[in-house]
Every structure is written in structure tokens, then in C-alpha cells.
Input
Amino acid sequence: MDAIILQFLNGLDKGSAYALIALGLTLIFGTLGVVNFAHGALFMIGSFCAVTLSKLFTLSFETLDPTRKDFLGNPLKIKTPYVEQWFGPDTGAVLIDWAVPLAILFAIPIMIAVGFIMERGLIKHFYKRPHADQILVTFGLAIVLQELVKHYYGANPIQTPAPEVFRGSFDFGTLLGFDPNVIIYPYWRLVYFAFAAVIIGGVFAFLQFTTFGMVVRAGMADRETVGLLGINIDKRFTIMFGLAAAVAGLAGVMYAPINSPNYHMGMDFLVLSFVVVVVGGMGSLPGAVAAGFLLGILESFASMNEIKGLIPGIDQIIIYVVAIVILLTRPRGLMGRRGVMEE
Amino acid sequence: MSNSKFTRRGVIKTGAGVGAGLALPTIFASRASAFTNEPTGSSVTLGFNVPQTGPYADEGADELRAFELAVEHLNGGGDGGMMNTFSSKALKGNGIMGKKVEYVTGDTQTKSDAARASAKSMIEKDGAVMISGGSSSGVAVAVQGLCQEAGVIFMAGLTHSNDTTGKDKKANGFRHFFNAYMSAAALAPVLEKLYGKDRRAYHLTADYTWGWTQQESIAAATEAVGWETVRNVLTPLAQTDFSSYIAPVLNSGADVLVLNHYGGNMVNSLTNAVQFGLRDKQVNGKNFEIVVPLYSELMAKGAGKNIAGIVGSQNWDWKLEDDGTKAFVKAFGEKYGFPPSQAAQTCYAQTLLYADAVERAGSFNPCDVGAALEGFEFDGLGNGPTSYRAADHQCFKDVLVVRGAENPQDEFHLVEIVEVTPVGQVTYAPDHPMFAGGNLGSCNPGA
Amino acid sequence: MLGLDKKDMTTLLVVAALVLLAPFILNPFPANSAMAQFNAGYPDLMQRFVIFGIFAIGFNILFGLTGYLSFGHAAFLGVGSYSAVWMFKLLSMNVIPAILLSVIVAGLFALVIGFISLRRTGIYFSILTLAFAQMSFNLAYSVLTPITNGETGLQLTLEDPRILGQTATESGGIPVTNLFGIEMRGSETLYFGDWSFQFSAGYYLCAIIMLISFYISVRIFRSPFGLMLRAIKSNKTRMNYTGLNTKPYALAAFVISGMYAGLAGGLLASMDPLAGAERMQWTASGEVVLMTILGGAGTLIGPVLGAGFIKYFENIFSKINESVLHSWFSFLPESVENGAVWVAEHFVGGGWSLTLGLLFMLVVTFLPGGLVEGGQRIIKLFRRRKADDGAEQRAAKSHPAE
Output
């Protein structure tokens, strides 16, 4: 029982990452009809926003300490971050500690700008082109983005810790009457789950309760008619792209403490997020979110020792098995609409 | 006019070429030579095949720096580095046997296929007479097999699986780096000393051959000192989030977690384990401990503060005090501005060992070079007295047990040396069951 | 001739000439010159060009004609490679049984996966094929290690039975792959002044098989079957309304292209007897998709060009390192040299994939039909110039007549 609760928590957490990425991807699919292979790269850039901010905060000046030696026997260079000099050591330390949450503020404008530039500069020329061309151009873009990041940050993962107060874990089990240490869960992962819930809720509310959202939803359902009504759908598409980029980027910022960011993390998530979107059903936002959580939870259950004991290697393939079963029993995934990306 | 002439000539030439190619099948180059890519001019070409893209690109970059430094020293440039401390004095700083050393580089992508393609182009196109480098055992075994077939020497880079000099050993391949068995043999006594005899270990193991050989080695060695292996869980290679594998650990009755992971896998699994607060817990009345059997500087950097106090093993560390290490760190540090990694050291040492073996053998013929390396005993390359065992082409030398520093003075002091395990303690018989099943075969000079 | 019209025959002859003369065409620079870095005429890369050409030709039969975008074709390549290596381990080192088995096994594998995946269309189909391929990759890397040798890849050993061949050669080595005694890795070098050209037995075997594959694909494109496949692409629903069941046709195309992939896998293993699990990873499936689109989906020769383009950058650009760059730019003053090297460094060595990514974007943005369209534009340019020349000449001639 405790193992099941524990894996359920894990699944919710994994699922929230999948759902956030898939949400952005399906917004672009659904509204713009573009297969965006660079979506994983947006997630990666988001994570590197967090890395960049924490690097900026720890940008240091060097003083020499003649009493200690560095590896070549020269006087040791002591690095002191500028923020500690400007704001005093205490405030400076707090800023450095809180770099990841602060990076949210930093990442929003950057991600929206990246989204706008991508859409205006490149993607908009591909709306009327075949999906194959969209795949090629966005794949090329994804490679370029990740290679640029690699060039400046290296290929090694970069540790980006969460603020001190969120390290360590919370003992859930004691609340439910289990022994201590039976069901523990890291604070930061709980934060991530809450954060994902807020973002997902926000996006849905935005689409549901604003005029803008209404037009976009109408555009998703029937783009031509909306265009015929004289609504400038192009401008809204650009904004949607910026929004999708921001959602992917924020998912990346908050993910940085969970797994140290590296330049190819976008590619690692790319295939998975496509599977999630398609299992959810093309053109369906609730479908993408539901599929994200479903796959996350099933993946966690599959990694339980009891289940691995029955079917060795099941955790390697569970996502794909589930995808195949769902697509064969429900032709358009969980909540897909007829006629979207079926040609 | 000129067009048609060109075509006619081309057709005649191709006709002749195709005819010759089918009628006289010979191996590789056709000019009469005693072995593949015999250097005939005033220079000799070495091939450095390292990951330049993919997760190990930074490690590959460090290997490449070491190779460049080694070539510089072989050609008489720089301060000579470890050539001055090397016990064999055959190298004179005038290249190898008077031939200037040139090199080509390639990208393994940490994929066997790409690594073999790259090594083949070095052999077929650039005339490389030796291939070195690499950052994973899969690649090392694949390239070693290729070099055996093609008739060139392979000086393995970073490869830690028992198989490289075990069931997949080859006569043309040589490994300086240590292996999983040695890690385990060095670690077990230290773990016993630090954490006691009565411990229960839970293993998370990367689900591929290197992971398995390491898990097998560590489990055997720790069980020999009285530990119990509670469970071994295999994790998929592509896994990035290990939470669902780490969550059940605390509840399993285990009080030690062994992470048989490398690279990005290790950084993530260790970070996740620390996030779950495992290190702050008490189980069975003891502090919960985490062990990472194979360490590297880059992984330590990636894992940041999470490695503080965590024990593992290394082939070499720049903080060692011997003359060879000092000379190498000085040469490397002055050229690049930071100390070398263990991957760099093994690649540098391998290049020097190869060059020295050629000088001593008086020939570039892989069979003569191999014979000169087999049973070769040397010192001064940073690992203390070392020998290349003839039976499996594995180097035997001291192994370092290291621990993540609690308060590193700078980014280069992330690990501290706990103990230098003497070579005698990590030596095993060539027919040890973990290494059984392979056959060195006979050396292949190619042509 | 051969059942082809004049235009297709010309294409076939041009391809044949290019492929057979490749050792010359790909080695345009003298062996010791600075530009020799760009020579691609060595056996391994030439073999890769034609083998991946076969893979892409096969993929194009499915994607170019029917429009079904499979994202799991690498699985068939991988299965083909494994079958071939097992043949070398168990039977003999002759490549013929190995290649035959790889085609058959890949075909059966494609039949199963195709039968299930073709129940869906569009992106649902793509994800189904992707899921099957990723499952194959993940299992081959881990649980199926006894069959696939996992991470290391399946290799020959000195202990293999090889019931129709020899376990080991007299000198104690592993025997090499051959075609009735012609060793696949055998090669002859022709020296011509400073130039050297390598003729490899393995390459010419691959080249001939590639030409046959190309010929078959031309015949499929021009056949009633090919027409039916195109009809599936243009409007599947209407096809169904006419009472025709399109699925058997699509499945046939899927199996044929799977067999092409298996053939490519078998040839890869014949040239270099190793089969690694990465051959089945989604990146490998993605690569053949990119090759086809980059070259020009639905065209005959495009996929081959796309395959050559990607493999060239992967193998040639990745080998250019800093010292090579310095030797190129050494004629410049030192500060300019360092600057030039610094800029160029981004695009070569470890940066080869950056170059490739940029080229993907440029090609697809400016040449919507892929590389083939680029070629057509160039030809058109020449034709127009020729036509202009002709017009001028006529004009010049007409003058004196006046």
C-alpha cells in the first residue's frame, strides 16, 4: 500500500512535467497546425534560463589569498560574487540561494521573446508547407539551439540547486498513519507539482474566460471560418506561440533542480512529449494533460520492483506499450478530434 | 571537347580499377607493406577518437587536450611533461623513431557505429597506425574489435567494464585504465572500515553491460566483507528522473545505496537520492550512506554539493604527490589553465606508452609493438609502479579510493583522496570468472 | 530499355555513372594537399553513402508515394544487421545468406508492425511506428542482451561455430566477410600522380545492389501499383468510397520499404560485422526521415542525395580539428588567423551538427523541394543560359543576312 502511494506521488510529479511540455506542444499543434520539433529545445532553454541567472548571481571578482595555493602552486584566487559585495553577504547569499524561483521572472520575457522571434522569423513561413518540411526546419532549429547552448555551457550537466528551505523531504506517511520514513517526498517536487497545477489551470482559464482565448479556441476548431470572419488570426497565432514557449520554458526553469540541466535534455524529452500529445489526442488540451499524468503514473508503477519482477524490462517500454494499446483501442487517442493531423 | 576527353579517361581508369579490385582482393592498401599503414615518410599519424558530441563531449574534449599535449611532448615541444619522469628513457623528444608525430581526430558520438566509422576513416583515409581514446566501454570494445581486424594498435581510453580486457579482449588492444573488479576490490575494505561489516546494500544499476559488470563486482567484493545485498534494481539507460527507483529504497531495510551509474545517469540519480533526503536518515540504527563506485571529475562537478562525503574510486587524481603526476599537472595546467581529469591522464599515458613501445621494439609493426607492451613494467606515469599484463593486456597499478569534499577550496578540489589501494590488493588471475570467456587471439598486423 | 522510358533511363544511367565512378568523383583533391580533408573517397564512407542511399530509397517508397510517415524505420535496419551478424556467427562468412536472411527477417518484422500500425493514419500512425521502434531499441539495449549483446553490439568472436565456414583462420584471427572468396574489405589503390583512388570490393558490391534497388524503385514508381500508392496519398477517403481497400497496398509498400531497410542493415553488417542497438534508436529513424525530406521526398534520386549529404557532414566535418584549421588559415596574419579559427571552430569538429542543423534550415527554407529542386534550378539556369546563347547566336547570324 505504502509503495503504491509513493509511486502515485512520483507519477504525479513526472506527469506534471510531461503535461506541461505536452500542453505547450499541443497548443502549437492545435492552433497553428505546426509540428514543432524544436519544442524540447524550448524546455531546455527554460532550464538554461535558471542556469544563466544563477551564473549571473555568482559572477565573481577575484582576490588573491597568498596563504593558500592553487593547483599550480600560485596564490589561490578567492572568488566573491558581486551580488554579495553590492547587497551585503546576507542578501547576496539569499539571492544566490533563490536563483531558481527568481529565474521564473527572468525566463518569462526571454521565453516570450524567443517564441515571437521563432514564429515571426521562421515558423510563419511554414504554415502552408507540408508537415515534413516543418519537421525538417524545426529539427534543424532544435539542433542549432542545442549546439549553441553546448558551445557556451559545455556538455556536462550543471547543478542548479533549489533554495535551501526546499531541500530535503517531507514525511507524508506520518500524516496517513504510517511509520516514519515510509512515505517521504522531496519538498521541491511538491513545489513542482503545485506549480504545474497553477500553470495548467492558468492556461485553461485564459482560453476559457477571455475573448482572446475564445477566438483561439474557435481557431483550433475551424481555422478557415475564423479567418473568414475577418479576425486577424495571425497576430493571435504569434501570441499563442509566445505563450506555448513560455509554458515550456517555465516547465524547464522549475525542472532545473530536479535534474541538472544539460544541452541535450530537450531531445530526451522530445519523443516522450510527442507520444504524450498523440496519446492525449490531437488538438485536445485536456487530452494532453490527462495523457501526461496517465503516462507518468503508469511509468512510476512499472518501475516498482514487484512489477519488474513479473515482467523484466517493463519499465523500459511501458510508455510505448500504453501508447500502442490506447491508439489501437481509441483511434484518436484519449480525447482527439476527428480530422486533425490524420492525413 | 575537354569534357568528353575527361570522361573517356575516367571510363578506362575505372574499368581497370574495377578489374583489379575484383581480381586481386587484398587487404586495405595495396603498396607492398609489412603491416597496415606502415609509415614510410618522415611522419607517423595517430588517430584520436573521442566523443565530441553527446553527453560525454566534455570528457572527450579533455582527452583531446591530453592527446595534443602528448604529441607536443613527443615532438620535443613544451617541457616534456611525464616523459621526464617515465622510467623508460627510449623517447628522445624527436617524434617516434625519428618520425614527426601527426594526429587526426574524430567524433565517436558515444555510439559504437559512429565510433567505428570514425576509426575506419582514420585507418583507411588518414593512414593512422594507432587509434586511442573513447569514453565508454561499448565504444572501446567496438573499436578494439575493429582495430584487431584492420591490424592497428588500439590504446583504450576511458573504459571501465571488465569485458574490455575480459570476454572481449583482443591481441591488438591495450587498456591502461582500471576496471570494475579493481574498483570493487579497492572499495570494499575502505567501506568496511568506514561503515562497518554489518551493512545491507541496495543497488541501482544502469541496465547495460558496463553497469552489470560493475554491480557484479561490487556485490561480490562487499559480500566478501560481510555485507548483504538486499536488492539490485536495473534502471533504463535513457532514464533522467530516478525518483521512482529511489523512493522505495528507504523502505527496503537497506542502509547503503550503491549507484552503479556513470555520467549523466550518475549525476541525476545521486541528485535525486539527496533530494529524497536519504543521507539525513537513520536506518537499522545507522546513518544511511550512498556509494558511487566509479567517480570522475566531471561527474563530481555536475553533481555539485551532493557528492560531499560520498565514497567512490578513481584511476588517478591530479592531487597525487608523485613526480609523474606533478610533471603532468604542471604541463597540462600551464597550457590549459585547469588540472587534468583522469580521462586525460589515461589518454596521455597511453600515447606515451605506445610511442615508447615502438621505440623499444624498433618497429611500428603492431605485433612488435604488442610484444614490447606485453609484460612491460614501468613507473613515473602518475600511478606508481605499473605493469601491462601479457595475458589480458590490462595494466595493474594502485587504485584510488576518493570521497567528495565537504568544503572544497575551489572547483578543482571537489574530491579528496581517502586511500591509495596498493596494486597487490586489486590483482586477480587472468582466468577469474568475471573475466572468463574471452580469447586474446593472435596479433594481427593487417596486410 | 529495361522497361523504362527515356527520362528514367537517363536518370538511372546518371546514377550508375556517379556510383561507379565515385572513387574518382569523391577524391578530387591530391592526397597530400590541405584540401584532402574534404576527400570522401575512402571505402567506409563510400559504402555508407550507398547503403544509406538504399535505406532512404526504401523509405521513400513508403513516405514519398503513400505519404505515411514512419518514425520507426530504423528498427528494420537494426533487425537486418542483427540477422546478418548471426548468420556470420552461425553459418559462414559469405555475405549472400546473411543479406538474404536480413531482408527476409526485416520483411517479416515490417509485416507485423505494418499490419498493426496501418490501422491508423497520419500522426497516429507515426507514433505507433515510433513506439514499436523505441521498444525494440530499449529491449535490445537491455533485456535482450543475450541475443543482441546490448551496449557493446553484436560482434564476431573466435568461438563462433560457423558450421559452413571456419571458426578461426590459420593465423588465429576471425575470418573476414566475403562473397565467394572476394573479401569485402579488400581494396586496391590506384596512384595517379599526387592523387590516390581506392577501389574497394565491398563498395562495388554495395554499389551494384544499390543500383538494382534503385532500378526496382523506379519500376515501382512507374507501375500501376505505384499509381495506386500515390492515390492513397492524394485522397484516401475517396479511394475507400470507390470500394477499394487501400490497406493491402499500403501494407505492401510498408513491407517493401522495411525490406529495403533490412537490406541496408544486412549490407552494413557485411561491410563491418557489428550490429549495435543504437541503429534502432529514434534518432536513427529520424535521420532517414531527414535524408528523404532533405533530398526531396517523392523524387527518385532525392533520398540518395539527402543520405550522402548527411553522411558527408557527419564523417568529414567532424574530423576537422583546430590544428587543421590553423594550417588552412596560416597564410593570414596571426591575429586574423586566430579570429578565423575561432569562428570556423564553431562549425567543425564537435560543431559538425551545428553546421548540419543550419543547412537543414537553409535548404528547407529556400529549396522547398529539397536538394533535387536545387539541382533542377541549376540545370534550368544552364539551359536558360544556353538558350540565351543560342538566341544571341541566331541574332548574330541574322544580322549579316540583313
